[in-house]
Amino acid sequence: MKLTLDTFHKFQKEQAARLEGRKAITVCCGTSCRAKGGLDVASAIQTKLKDAGLDENAVELTQTGCHGWCEMGPIVTVEPEGTFYQQVKVEDADAIVASYTKGNAEEKLLYRDPTTRQRVASYHAIPFYAGQTRWALRNVGRVDPANINDSIARGSYVALNRALTSMTPEGVLNEVAEAKLRGRGGGGFDAGRKWRSAAKAPGFPKYIICNGDEGDPGAFMDRTIMEGDPHGVLEGMILAAFAVGSNQGYIYVRQEYPLAVEHLRQAIKDAHAMGLLGDNILGTEFSFDVRIARGGGAFVCGESSALMRSIEGKVGEPRAKYVHATDKGLNDKPTVLNNVETYVNVPLIVEKGSQWFANTGTDKSKGTKAFSVVGKVLHSGLIEVPMGTTLRELIFDIAGGIPGKNRQFKAVQTGGPSGGCLPEKMLDLPVDFDSLADNGSMMGSGGLIVMDDRNCIVDVARYFVHFLVEESCGKCVPCREGLRHLLDVLERITQGKGKMSDLDTIERLCDVLENGSLCALGKSAANPVRSTLRYFRKEYEEHINEHFCKAGVCPALCTYKINDQCTGCTLCAKVCPTHCISGSRKEKHVIDQAKCIQCGSCFDVCNFNAIDILGSNG
Amino acid sequence: MATNINLDDILTRYPEEEASLIEILHDIQAAHRHLPRETMKTVAEYTGVPLSRVTAVATFYSAFSFEPKGETVIKICMGTACHVKGANLIKGEAERKLGIKAGQTTKDGKFTLEVVNCVGACAMAPLVIQNEQYYGKFKPVDLDKLLRTGE
Amino acid sequence: MIELTIDGKRVQARKGEHLLAIARREGVEIPTLCHHEAVEPSGACRMCMVEVTRPDWEGWSKLVTACNFPAEEDLIVRTRTDKVMQTRKEILELLIARTPGSQLIAEMAREYGLDHPTLTVGELSEKCILCDICTRVCQNLVTGAISRINRGVEKEVNTPFAEVSDVCIGCLACAKSCPTDAIEFKQVGLERTIWGRTFDLVPCTQCGAPTLPKEQAEWLSERTGMKVEEYFVCVKCKAAQTARTYENIAW
């Protein structure tokens, strides 16, 4: 059935009415929960509901996208109460349905607050969720991404209907411009300005591209949105197309995200069938279609000019941006390119107005931002907060801080391979487009990787440079050759072969990368190294002068030894992958240094502080 | 393994143009678990792209490979979250246990070991993927069990 | 026409014209490695970096590649600032480390005062700086026999699967356009070998000296409409022929 401007309103109301006071059980079927058996949990609950004689009218079972708190998966919620079940297994289906019919909650599956030891009945009362402002993630974890009616019931395409009914393209452009929406992919470029340039540029066709090539390691905001709310992305793109005057769009998705590709394909098909995409959208003169282009596993294709070459079927090498994509982009035609999270914000702005949007955030960074807070943090997952929230609030108040009673916060890495590592003293910085950049890092697309004192900062710098060596396209000299030498120097230092003069060589190579590289990948490649050298120089010097990696990471620069605190509990011997720890029960154990690979598994499990990390010669 | 998929069936899914090249390569790779060299000329003719540019594209993107992969593909995620939680050690142990380097296939064709730069399942770090099945919070010692199930 | 300043001199140019072309016209020297007049600029070698600013940029400036930066009114271009010279010098050091055997790079490095390179050097036999002139020439002007294989540090120029190419016409355009003589070819008697393929050179119909491969003549003939046989006259004989023609006309 194709909807029109006249019929959409009534249809939407009908769908929304279905939600009123609806009883629903949602099962998270995002990538993480799926891996932990989410789909099996869903079908087990389905069977039990059927057995209990409950049909869809009594309670709706929804398979949703990611709830963001992947740590706790598989996650099941009961609405409208907001009952939050964690780490649900297939065997729990019986109890969930039984307590549902009784109208109460299954105690043992509820989240237990680590400090009060109390079970928490609803996710609204859990700090991980209560501290968030979910705008971009508004529908993620709530709708069934494979059911367009579900999305429409929650308000998808309401903004589109409004724009096509009562707004001009110029009007949509103005709203986005006045909302001061900035690109969420990392660059932070003013979206309204970009759209206006493309709208004004001569040339046809014009293209709308959605960058779903979320390449920053440690970031999965866009994956979650594409998987969990594909219609939000589509609607944002359609509105952009209307504003700019485009008829063709592309979503460039990483091939590492098969579920996102599947859900987007389904969404495009469904939107077509409903008259929300394709020719004569909602019965108007406006036509716009979207195609999916899969990435090929190349980080550099997140760079806009490389991405466009890739859609053209070419090698993903960037080219100079002296002429903007809004004039000459895909196929040398005017092109607007924004990322997933940017587009998903657009329907909100059109629906609620630029003023409403701009009321949240900081002076220069409006709205909210989704972050993937991962690494050495108690509650890994997706967290969306207003721009300007501090790193400390994100990492400690919402994500629960550093796990392990003896572990200390060391650094937080933001902005992926283009960003940097910030130390403890920077934790009160507000996270927005500008403040992190002023301190040697950047907000980037939203990956926050937390590190504790068991992470070696030189190793982290080496890791990023290694990543970039593998991902550099190899076109320009500074990036291709400079990174190779930078890696060479950092490897020498982590192997205990470093010299103090190497630190000057590092600075020099960072300069040529920054000044000489063709694209942002190379220009910003120095950041992870520069920031670690700026804030953790002492650790570099320890590696070079004392041949000591106190974090116990660089194998050549540390040894693990068992001290007299050992109670002979045998735990360390059990986790040792090379079986190099010996000793009888209740007696002090010994590590065979010849077989030890310095993995630190023993250190991490020891409850008695019985393992020391010493320098390379003990 | 769906090796009986006809090349023509894949080609005709897409228009005869350069922009179809990467999508076509994806489908061939999925059907054969590698890009058979003999198919590349046909792809070049269909898309109107010189063979040299087809091979340039096929070798630029890490999703494609000209070498057949093993029956079991083990991917170790090397994203930042996985790295800070010890992915390197898992990689080292896997290389030691299989006697191959990442990117290689065992002589008996059973295992291919690969590394991947983040699959966006960072909350499960460190992560190992065996034939598309995700294993989170992976420890080096878990490899023994994983390699047994792969046999 | 617009006006801009290069190294303090007011010059005229077309809007959008590339800075390198303007500079060369005005006799301002800017070094290049990956630039070739026959193909579109690539911006890969980064040697032609210059510093640009504008009166309204309030002192802010940026480094850009002259080969593909489009000229605009009132642009101020400086081709030899400290930052420019330092960046070029660092790039040359990176290239020396890659191709320690290349004479051209060594000479340029000396010009930029790079006396004691400190980076670990690679193999002496390596001469290719991956400037992509050969592949751009072959892809855009000839038959597309060679391309850049792999990514990043693994990148290299080769034929598909490093096998003998059946579309190569043995024209040597790749080898002749290479700034560092990195593409090897052999010519002995009536045989020419390049990229692993040996071509028979057709002897000159007048004097028997080697002319060019039949494959190249056929490729040219298809595009020019000239007969294939007309290509089988060597340069010397062709010159003699032309001289005779003029002689006849002059008479």
Walk me through this protein's architecture.
- The complex is a heterotrimer of chains A (618), B (151) and C (251).
- Chain A is an alpha/beta fold.
- Chain A contains 24 helices and 19 strands.
- A five-stranded mixed beta sheet of chain A has the order 12-11-15-13-14. In chain A, strands 2-1-3-4 form a four-stranded mixed beta sheet, covered by helices on one side.
- In chain A, strand 17 and strand 18 form a beta hairpin.
- The longest helix of chain A is centred in the C-terminal third of the chain and has 18 residues.
- Chain B is 42% helix and 12% strand.
- The mean pLDDT of chain B is 92.
- The termini of chain C are far apart.
- Classes of the chains: A alpha/beta (618), B alpha+beta (151), C alpha+beta (251).
- Chains in contact: A-B, A-C, B-C.
- At the B-C interface, helix 4 of B face strand 6 of C.
CATH fold name of the largest domain in chain A, please?
Rossmann fold
Q: Most extensive interface, residues per chain?
A: A-B, 61 and 49 residues
Please state the overall shape of chain C, judged from the principal axes of the Cα atoms. Answer: globular
How many distinct helices of chain A?
24
Question: Which class best fits the helix and strand makeup of chain C?
Answer: alpha+beta
Quaternary organisation: heterotrimer
Q: What gyration radius of chain C follows from the Cα positions, in whole Å? A: 22 Å
Low-confidence stretches of chain C: none
* Shape annotation of chain A: globular
Radius of gyration of chain A: 26 Å
How many structural domains can be distinguished in the coordinates of chain A? 5
Helix content of chain A: 25-40%
- CATH-defined superfamily of the largest domain in chain A: NADH-ubiquinone oxidoreductase 51kDa subunit
**What is the helix content of chain C?**
25-40%
Strand segment count of chain C: 11
Low-confidence stretches of chain A: none
Summarize the structure.
By secondary structure, chain A is an alpha/beta fold. Chain A is built from 24 helices and 19 strands.
Highlighted features:
heterotrimer; A: 618 residues; alpha/beta; Glutaredoxin; Rossmann fold; Ubiquitin-like (UB roll); 5 domains; 4-stranded mixed beta sheet; 19 strands; 14% strand; C: 251 residues; alpha+beta; 2 domains; 7 helices; globular
